[in-house]
Amino acid sequence: MKAKYIAIVVAVASVTLSSCTTYTRVSQYPKMYDEKPLTLLVMPPINNTTNVEAKELLYTSISQPLIEAGYYVVSPHLSMELLKAESAYDAEMFIDQDAAMFAKVFGADAVIFSVIDVWKKKGVGIETKIKYSVKSTTTNEILFERTCDLYLDLQQNSTNSALVNLAATLITTAVTDHIVAARKCNKYIFNDIPRGKYSPEYQKDQNIKASKKDAKVTVK
Question: How far is the C-alpha of 131 from the C-alpha of 215, rounded, in Å?
């Protein structure tokens, strides 16, 4: 009986310690620091939803947070034209393939893939779930990977009646807020990426606390 009690205590202690473990950027994304990618190519997102606009909305806003993090990003407009010309617009064709071709064609050190699993209106907001990965064109390894489960809350902060409030929210959602949701997802995910060569934090951010790989957040 005593032995069983000790085993239970040890098991509980192990779970508690693992749940309290703090990861740094270098421990969570060591391959980013090993390979030090400089030039990134953003592939068109893989859209697993019925929202046909989601792919373009996400694609047009992925580059900015990567540039802000200190990376050189191949022009999305130029790369898109070349990908279309080569009938390579569908990233599904390449996500599980050797990425070396992108180094030869674009001079990219790594490729950014994204998969949209959820993108829809829910209540008075927009619900999204997107998986991002950074794949090396040298080793074909995944250097960085995170999932963003983000809800953009469009609830109006107003003292008007509930009916007027709902009407205003629906108009806002229809006109502008899908692109806002895309920008917030991208910014939230890549805020945690190790900084690139053009950032003053380059190779100085190893011990910064890393965020969870599977992020779930509600934003306004």
Answer: 10
